[in-house]
């Protein structure tokens, strides 16, 4: 299933406030350094996030220090991370919207769209309950068709690719996801070899999964790690340390071009 494909940053501090009325809104701003650590000094921040809570749901919006919007996720359940509504990305230089993904009960549902930084259409794809359904169309920046595809229940039933001049050309995949070099098993092996169980958590028998989001940039570098769901401050810090030394990945490719993409990873802490 295709996840949002362009550069995006997410936060990670989801605060539960006891005693708030069900309809009340709560805004929480958190500043982050370039390595994904929180900072109390806005001048040292590489970006900041605003969590807007309303009942169990709300939104998380990420901004550059100058106030330019980068990304926004809408949720029906903030604690569980269930998306509902649009996930939107903006180009920080032009302020233009560059991608929008519709979610229903945590699954992609509806028409997802992307635009070039100048505002031209880039691609459009329809989802139904998390699966591709109907047409996918993509365009070159000059407006000519790049490809057309048809899907049924997630399976491609037809498709064509075109040159910039509008001629048929050899088929090529629309996208390739970002991947740790060697695949999922290699990633698991790397995490197992490099993870250091915090002594205090080992003594206290603290176990569970830390969920972390980050961006794999166009060069495959891991950027902007953010804890989505933590266990303790020490396990969260260990996950951020792992991300800071993680080797480069194979970058994602969309329509033949390397792109930055968000990625979410669970890191298991288990006492054997």
TrEMBL record:
Question: Topology relative to the membrane, per the entry?
Answer: Single-pass membrane protein
Any keyword Membrane? yes
**Primary location:** membrane
Q: Give every TonB C-terminal domain span.
A: 182-272
Indicate where this protein resides in the cell. Cell inner membrane
Q: What is this protein called?
A: TonB family protein
Which UniProt keywords are listed? Cell inner membrane, Cell membrane, Membrane, Protein transport, Transmembrane, Transmembrane helix, Transport
Instruction: Please report which protein family the annotation says this sequence is part of.
Output: Belongs to the TonB family.
One Pfam family hit: TonB_C
